[in-house]
Write a structure and sequence with these properties.
With 382 residues, the chain is an alpha/beta fold. The protein contains 11 helices and 12 strands. Helix 2 runs parallel beside helix 7 and helix 7 packs across helix 11. Its cofactor is pyridoxal 5'-phosphate.
Length: 382
C-alpha cells in the first residue's frame, strides 16, 4: 500500500513505539499510586511527557491536561469554559466558530444552544480562510468563546491564529484553537490562544491520547465534563494511560527536532505529486490554492467526468480519501468544501491526500503510475 492519507492519521514513528513498549510490560504501575516505586516511576514518566508536550508549544507543563485525543480536548475546552462562565451569570452568551471546523467543534458549539448560549457559525472565503472583518462584526456582540482551528483537516489551509487571537482578546472573549493538524507541522505557539487541542496520532504518535493546553495566567477556568477521581487538576478524571502518554511525549519531542526538515521534505514531495497529477489530469484544481497550508497537504478537484470515489476504487493500493476520516463513509459532499463555495457536483470530484514523514520519493512515482492507470480505467468506463 502507498499511504497518502496522513491527515487522517499517521504511522507511529518507530522511536515512539520503542519508547512505549516498556510501559506496557516492564513498568506497569498506576501513575496515581504514589505509595510505591512502580507508581512513582509511571508518574515521573507522565510528567516528563507533560514537559515534552509543553515544550513544543512554549507552554508551562502545568498548563497541559492529558485527554484521549483532540475530540475530547475540544469538547472540554468549548463546553467547559462556557459552562463555568454561565455559573458566574455572565452576560456573554455568544459562542463563535467557523463553518469549516472539525465536526466535534461544530457539534459542541451547536449543542450549547440548549443551555442558553447563542451559537454563531461564520462563513469562510473561497480559499478556506476566515475574513477578519467577518469575525470583527460577530464580536460586536458580547462573546464568551471563539474556536478557530489552526489547520484544516481536509484542505490543510492555515488560519491566521495570531491575528485572529488578538481580535478575540481585544473583544474580551476566550480563544480556543483546535491545533491537531498544525502542531509539529508548522511553527505554532500557545501565546495567541487561551486553550489549544492536540492529538497524538496526527503527529506520528499513538491513537487514543491527546492534550488540552489551558492557560494558567491569566487563568482560564473550566467545568469538567465528567466526574471521577479528580486527576489532571480536576479537569479530566480517569487513570492516565502511561504507555500512550510516554509515546505522545516522545512524538512531540521528535516533532520539535524534525519540524523544519519534515516541512522541507514533505513540501518537496507534495510539489512533485501535484506536478505529476496536473500532467495526468489537465484542468486539475487545488482547493484553497492561494492560502498558506501545512506542507504535506493537498486537496484537489478533479476535471469533469471523473468522480473521486470511482478513481479511488480503481487504485485500491493507494490510500487517499474524499473527505475527513470521521465523515468519509457518508455519501454526502464534504461540508468543508461546500463552505468554500463548491457545489455538490464539484465536491464529488475532490480528493484529499497528504504526504508525511515516511513517504518516499519512490512511493510518489509509484502513486503517479497508479493514478495514470486508474484515470485510463475511469475514462474508459465513462
Amino acid at each position: 500500500m502507498i499511504y497518502l492519507d496522513n491527515q487522517a492519521t499517521t504511522r507511529c514513528d518507530p522511536a515512539v513505539v520503542g519508547a512505549m513498549l516498556p510501559w506496557f510490560g516492564d513498568y506497569y504501575g498506576n501513575p496515581h499510586s504514589d505509595s510505591h516505586e512502580a507508581g512513582l516511576l509511571a508518574a515521573r514518566a507522565v510528567e516528563l511527557a507533560r514537559e515534552q508536550v509543553a515544550g513544543l508549544i512554549c507552554a508551562q507543563p502545568r498548563e497541559i491536561v492529558f485527554t484521549s485525543g483532540a475530540t475530547e480536548a475540544n469538547n472540554i475546552a468549548i463546553k467547559g469554559t462556557v459552562r463555568h462562565l454561565a455559573r458566574r451569570n455572565t452576560t456573554r452568551r455568544r459562542v463563535i466558530t467557523v463553518a469549516t471546523e472539525h465536526k466535534c467543534v461544530l457539534e459542541s458549539v451547536r449543542s450549547l444552544a440548549s443551555e442558553g448560549f447563542e451559537p454563531v457559525i461564520l462563513p469562510v472565503m473561497h480559499d478556506g480562510r476566515l475574513d477578519p472583518g467577518v469575525l470583527a462584526e460577530a464580536l460586536t456582540v458580547p462573546t464568551a468563546l471563539v474556536s478557530i482551528m489552526a489547520a484544516n483537516n481536509e484542505t490543510g489551509v492555515l488560519q491566521d491564529i495570531a491575528g485572529l487571537g488578538a481580535m478575540v482578546r481585544a473583544a474580551g472573549a476566550l480563544f480556543h484553537s483546535d491545533a491537531a493538524q498544525a502542531v509539529g507541522k508548522t511553527a505554532l505557539s500557545c501565546e495567541a490562544v487561551d486553550l489549544m487541542s492536540i492529538s497524538g496520532h496526527k503527529i506520528y504518535g499513538p491513537k487514543g491520547v491527546g492534550a488540552l493546553y489551558v492557560r494558567h495566567r491569566p487563568r482560564v477556568r473550566l467545568e469538567p465534563l465528567f466526574s471521577g477521581g479528580g486527576q489532571e487538576r480536576g479537569l479530566r478524571s480517569g487513570t492516565l494511560p502511561t504507555p500512550l502518554i510516554v509515546g505522545f511525549g516522545k512524538a512531540l519531542s521528535l516533532a520539535g527536532e524534525m519540524r523544519e526538515s519534515d516541512e522541507t521534505r514533505t513540501g518537496a514531495l507534495r510539489a512533485e505529486l501535484l506536478a505529476g497529477l496536473q500532467t495526468i489530469f489537465p484542468g486539475l484544481q487545488v482547493n484553497g490554492q492561494d492560502a498558506p497550508r501545512v506542507s504535506g497537504a493537498l486537496n484537489l478537484c478533479l476535471p469533469e467526468g471523473i468522480e473521486a470515489r470511482a478513481l479511488i476504487a480503481a487504485m485500491p493500493d493507494v490510500a487517499v480519501s474524499t473527505g475527513s476520516a470521521c465523515t468519509s463513509a457518508e455519501i454526502v459532499p464534504s461540508y468543508v468544501l461546500t463552505a468554500m463555495g463548491l457545489d455538490a457536483k464539484d465536491a464529488a470530484r475532490c480528493l484529499r491526500m497528504a504526504v508525511g514523514r515516511f513517504t518516499s520519493t519512490r512511493e510518489i512515482v509509484q502513486a503517479l503510475d497508479r493514478f495514470r492507470e486508474a484515470a485510463c480505467e475511469v475514462y474508459r468506463a465513462s
